[in-house]
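ok trying this again, last paste got cut off
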Amino acid sequence: MIEVTNHPLSDWKNAVLSVSPSDFAGPIPPAHFLMRTEELGRKTLAEYYIPFTGVNPNAKIIIAGITPGFAQWKNAVTVAKAALQKGLSDEDVLTEAKLTGAFSGPMRTLFVQQLDHVGFHRVMGVESSSAFFEGEGSVHLTSVFVHPVFVNDKGLNSIVNLDKSALLRESLLNGFAKEAGMLTEAVIFPLGKVATAASMAPAFCRACSIRPRPIARALRTSAAKRGETKCRAPTSRNRLTATRRRCSRP
């Protein structure tokens, strides 16, 4: 993986190595992982470091969630600490942290089921979408807000106005937008309404020209090219959205 960030792992190694069992009590990461905060009326936004800053340069698909939650932070930091203690390179540390922590916990099971349901694994030529977590391959796993963002100590799960939040706007542009700028030929699959709204926000679109497409249509088109005739659509309750974009490098 190639590290693309304003917050490299080298600046946070001491924090990762010093993490203790008490830091995993939750519901938010400990204070020494805090990057910045912002007050918006009655809401307090807080952004914390996570070793998710590696980018797969060979990716043709970008799967983007909203932002990592506490469970993902805990799993990623646990693996990153163990990898650093083994003396692994920063690149290998970031790879292990991403493959272990990204969409981890019950979220990963649901995520894999959704992708398999719409036939994404067939389009990518693998037996199951769980293969995306076994190696880098051609998929880049990320979030529109790469580092965990909490609102009043709770996970970010509602659509936000980027024009009102400098923290979220800068997080989007300094993280996800830079990653997308590296992967100019990739297709973005934002998961859910919040990730879709953020990936189509004016702040992001100024750097990337995007054209949204329903994932079912994108998958049917790809399946047709492969000579397949069936590609089941996602349920209306758990609909995914694909975004075809051409990006200019920032």
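PB: full thing came through this time. The CA atoms of residues 177 and 197 lie 14 Å apart.
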